[in-house]
Amino acid sequence: MSYAEIIMATLKGIAGDNVSKYKYKLISQKESSAKYGLCEVCGKFVSEVFHQIESRKYEDGYTYAGCKDYFGHKECLESKQR
Ligand SMILES: [Zn+2]
Q: Structure pTM?
């Protein structure tokens, strides 16, 4: 094994342990709860509603199966990330 190969194997090992198999996309709806409803996490009014789309690593790509989408405060959505 060359030096470069050892480095790559080490990096792969680190990534494999630390990288979440979930991926998140946060999109601002640029509108408040008046249009999108209350925060789905805390149930309170939101002045700028965010939509969080969760996807999960599956084989070589990502899937939305078994994943949850939420609307609400950015902080609340981030607290739901796993
Ligand atoms: Zn909230």
A: 0.72
